[in-house]
């Protein structure tokens, strides 16, 4: 869950613009796609608003889009054309940091890993299971078939919650 240097650069650049709109920057995805890249920004309400049941609105997304567009136009950190999307993380929210993962102990997570972990038939690059523990550098996930995986945060390529009805 270590951000790339490009994500770190973009985060540093746009975080103040997002904060100025009264919301938190949840995370950023940047996907170069040939001549046109995609920059997706996830925003979340502030913790006190979340505690009161408030959610990100379309107006929040619009305000952040406007603010961030201005910053990107001035600093021009992305070569070529790009599409800017601003969204709430939703129910199946992507997880970008250890702190975010720690908020969801007890929930089901879907992890895509950089390298396979486990041994024999249990070896895999994708782990879906209940998050049972979060440590300093690792998290423990128990799959539906009762396999336990200790996953190092730096080995996670992508992580998100699995929505349960």
Care to describe what's here?
Residues 13-92 form the Ribosome maturation factor RimP N-terminal domain. It comes from Moraxella porci DSM 25326. It is found in: Cytoplasm. Pfam families: RimP_N (PF02576). The protein has 165 residues and is of the alpha+beta class. It folds into two domains: 5-90, 2-Layer Sandwich (GMP Synthetase, Chain A, domain 3); 95-161, Roll (SH3 type barrels). The chain is 27% helix and 38% strand. Strand 5 (124-134) and strand 6 form a beta hairpin. Helix 1 crosses helix 3. The model has no long low-confidence stretch (mean pLDDT 95).
Give a quick precis of the structure.
The chain has 165 residues and is an alpha+beta fold. 27% of the residues lie in helices and 38% in strands.
For the largest beta sheet, what order do the strands appear in spatially? 7-6-5-4-8
Count of runs of 4 or more consecutive helical residues: 4
User: How many domains, as an integer?
Assistant: 2
Average pLDDT reading:
95
Poorly predicted runs of 5 or more residues: none
Encode the helix/strand succession as letters.
Answer: HEEHHEHEEEEE
Kindly report how far apart the N and C termini lie: 27 Å
SSE topology sketch:
Elements: H1 5-20, E1 24-31, E2 36-44, H2 47-51, H3 58-75, E3 81-87, H4 98-102, E4 108-117, E5 124-134, E6 138-143, E7 148-152, E8 156-161
Parallel strand pairs: 2-3
Antiparallel strand pairs: 1-2, 4-5, 4-8, 5-6, 6-7
Helix pairs in contact: 1-3
């Amino acid at each position: 869950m270590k951000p790339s240097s490009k994500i770190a650069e973009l985060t540093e650049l746009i975080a103040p613009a997002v904060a100025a709109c009264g919301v938190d920057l949840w995370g950023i995805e940047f996907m170069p796609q040939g001549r046109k890249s995609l920059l997706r920004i996830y925003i979340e309400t502030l913790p006190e608003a979340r505690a009161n049941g408030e959610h990100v609105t379309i107006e929040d997304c619009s305000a952040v889009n406007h603010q961030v567009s201005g910053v990107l136009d001035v600093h021009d950190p992305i070569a070529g054309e790009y599409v800017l999307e601003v969204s709430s993380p939703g129910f199946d929210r992507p997880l970008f940091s250890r702190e975010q993962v720690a908020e969801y102990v007890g929930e089901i997570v879907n992890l895509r890993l950089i390298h396979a972990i486990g041994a024999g038939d249990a070896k895999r690059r994708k782990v879906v299971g209940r998050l049972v523990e979060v440590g300093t550098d690792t998290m423990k996930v128990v799959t539906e078939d009762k396999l336990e995986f200790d996953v190092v945060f730096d080995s996670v390529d992508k992580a998100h919650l699995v929505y349960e009805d």
